Each structure stands twice: as C-alpha cells, then as structure tokens.
Task: inverse folding
C-alpha cells in the first residue's frame, strides 16, 4: 500500500526520502523518456548516449533530475505537445512512437552492433544467438529487441518451412521453396547484419511471424 506521507512520484523527480535507492524499473522509465526525446530530435546521438549511461549509473532520484528537466516532460510523464505547424502536426500523427514494427527506432552505435550480432550470430549459433538477445533485450533497448525478434522469427520460419518441405518431399513446389529458404538463410542474415550496423529497421521477407510486438 502507498504510504500517504510519501505520495507517488515520477522516477526522475527528487525523492521525498532521498536515501531510498532507485530500482531498475525506475531507471528504465527515465531511459525510455530519453529514447523518446532522441527520437523527437531533442537530443543528439552523443547526448543520448551520455544521459543514458548516467541514468544506468544513477542511485537516487536527484541523480536523474538533470537528465530530463530540459525535455519538457509533463506531470503525467508524457512528452510535451508537438509544436504547431506542419512538422509538429506530422509528428503527432500515428499515436505513440515505435508501436508500428515498420517504423524506425532510434539507436546508438553500441545498440546497432548488438543488434547486428543477433543477425550475424546465426551463422555460428542458429536460433541461440537471437534468442539470447531477445530474452535480454528488455534491459538493452527496443531497437535491439525488435531486431533480435526479427532474427529469431526468421530462424523459426526457416525451420518450419524446412520441416514442411520434408513432409511434402514428393511435390515440386515445396522443394523449390526449401531451396529459396536455404539461399535466403545463407544471404539474408549478412544483409540484416549490415542493415543493423547502419541503424536500419530490417525486416526479413517471410510469410509469417510467430513472435510479434505487443
């Protein structure tokens, strides 16, 4: 039960009891605010990296105040309204940023390298490499999560397609599909690795995806 003497607060505000240490969830909330600010262009790549690192090392609420106080965060924790004019109206359309799997997500150079490992790692540890990143991605970044999920979906797609083709081996069409998937498995992870290093929102050409964004 919430202590009435200490009402609920935003994690980036100073704490009423300054000796109470921050939780991982509170740090993640602030990093989410920074990531949205980076996506809106309020922070450049260097500032985003520096503030994210400071947020991860923060111990108390007061440590987080300088990281968000100039970003115009409202009392509800939502970003400030988009500025008037055609560009502001364009940014406000479509609801929350990052909900569309086709919409590019902001990323740092380190996040791009990690995402690339999730694709290229399939040549050495198929399924395992993207699966590990996907399970850990909640503590890394949405960009890494999306790319790890896409890579894992591709591995599942290849496995399912291969098994179906084996069961229907007497037909020509499944055999051709298997050859196409085998060629794709050889080439596409390399393409995805390069795309991730460039910060692209890579999507494999697949008929279905088992894992999807919430």
Result:
């Amino acid at each position: 039960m919430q202590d009435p003497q200490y009402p609920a607060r935003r994690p980036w505000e100073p704490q009423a009891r300054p000796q109470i240490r921050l939780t991982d969830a509170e740090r993640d909330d602030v990093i989410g605010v920074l990531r949205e600010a980076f996506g809106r262009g309020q922070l450049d790549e260097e500032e985003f990296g520096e503030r994210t690192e400071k947020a991860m090392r923060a111990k108390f609420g007061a440590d987080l105040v300088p990281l968000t106080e100039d970003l115009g965060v409202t009392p509800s924790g939502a970003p400030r309204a988009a500025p008037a004019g055609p560009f502001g109206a364009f940014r406000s359309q479509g609801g929350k940023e990052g909900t569309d799997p086709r919409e590019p997500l902001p990323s740092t150079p380190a996040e791009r390298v990690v995402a690339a490992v999730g694709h290229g790692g399939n040549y050495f540890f198929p399924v395992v490499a993207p699966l590990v990143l996907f399970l850990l991605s909640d503590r890394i970044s949405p960009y890494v999560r999306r790319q790890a999920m896409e890579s894992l979906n591709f591995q599942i797609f290849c496995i399912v397609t291969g098994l179906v083709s084996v069961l229907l081996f007497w037909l020509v069409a499944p055999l051709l599909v298997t050859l196409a998937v085998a060629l794709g498995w050889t080439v596409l992870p390399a393409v995805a690795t390069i795309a991730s290093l460039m910060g692209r929102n890579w999507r494999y050409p697949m008929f279905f995806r088992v894992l999807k964004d919430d």
Observations:
- The CA atoms of residues 104 and 201 lie 5 Å apart.
- Residues 109-197 form one domain.
- The mean pLDDT is 76.
- The chain has two domains: 24-92, 109-197.
